[in-house]
Amino acid sequence: MGKTTVRAVLLIGWISALSSAGGDGAVASPLAARVIAGAAPAAAASPGLVTVVSPEYRTRVTTLETTGKVQFNEEELVRVTAPVTGRVVEVLARPGESAEPGRRLLVIDSPDLGAAKADYAKAVADGERARHAIDLARDLFEMKAISEREVQAAQSDYRKAVAERDRAASRLGTLGVPESQLQGIASRADASTLVVVRAPRAGTVVERNISPGQVVSYGQSDTPLNLFVIADLSRMWVLADVYEPDVPRVRRGQTVSVTQPCCPGERYPGRVDNVADAIDKDSRTLKVRAVVPNRSRNLKAEMFVKVAIDTSSSRVLTLPAEAVQRREGVASVLLETGQHAYERRLIRTGAEFDGLVEVLDGLAPTDRVVATGGILLRQSGQ
To answer: pTM for the full model?
Structure first.
C-alpha cells in the first residue's frame, strides 16, 4: 500500500470518527446543507466505481390503491331476446364466436309470424278496396248521386286502411322481415313461419341460453330473458371500491392502472368515467367506474383486480435511491466538493417511487452527489 493510499484511509477514518462522535446531537440540528464530515480524497476507492449525478425534478404521482371487479362494458353490450313465440329450429352461434351486425343467430318456427303475414296481406287488400271506394264515391258525387259527406266517409275509411297496412308492415319489420319481402307477402306468395333472429351489432358472443327444440315466448318471464348476450371485449369496465375517507380524492377523468393478482407486472391503463352518487350501505364504499382497454383480452368479466387511481401529481426534487445512505434512521449523501473530494451531508427525504427518492431538504439541483460507489468511500472510513 502506497503512502498516499495510507494517508487517505487514515484521513477518512478520522473523519468518520468525528462524525460518529457527534452522536444524536448532529441529528437534532438543522438538516439543510449540514456538513458532518470534512473533504477527503477518494483514493480508497477506484475512481471507475464512483458515479456522480445531480438531483433532478421529476413528476411524482400520488395514487389511491384499492380493489375492484371487471365487468362487461354495458354501453357496448346487447341482450338478444325472443321477438316472437315459437319453437327454436336451429342455433347458429356459439359463445366465443364473433358476431357482425346482421349475423344469423337462430331460427324460430313461429305461428306469430304466419299471423303477422296474414294481417299484412289483409291490410293491403283492405287498402286497395278503400282506394277503389274513394274513386267510385267521387264519380258518384260528380253525378250528384251521393252527398259530399259520403265522399268524406270513404276518404276516412281509406286513411284507416292505410294506417292498418303500415302497422302490419311495422310488425313484420320487428320480426326481422325485410321490406323487399312485403310484396310477396301481400300477394300471399310468402307464407313461411320461420323467423331468423340476427345480431343487432358487432361483438363477441359471451352467453347463450337457448338450444334447438326449446320453446321461447315473447314477453314471457318463464323462459330465459336473454337468448344471447353479445359484448364488445376490446374495452371493459372496472368497478373500484373507494372508502368514504378517500371519496374527495376521486373524480372523473383521472387515470387508473389495473393489475391482476396473478400477473402484477402486467398493467392495464384506463380512465375514470363515472363516480357513483351514493355509498353502498353494506360495504360503505363508493363505486368508481373506469373504462380500460382490453386489447389482449386477458381481463375477464367478474375477475377481481387491483386498481391504482392517480389522484394528484407534483414536481419534486429526486435522487436515485442508491445515492441515499441511511444509518440509524438518518439519511445522508456524499457530496462532491472537488476532484476526488467529497463531504457527507444530511438530507431530509420524502416518498420513494420508481427507484427514486424525494429530497425535501439539504440539496439543490446544482449539487453533485455520489450515486454509486459511495458505500466504498463510506467503508474505507470505518
So the answer is: 0.63
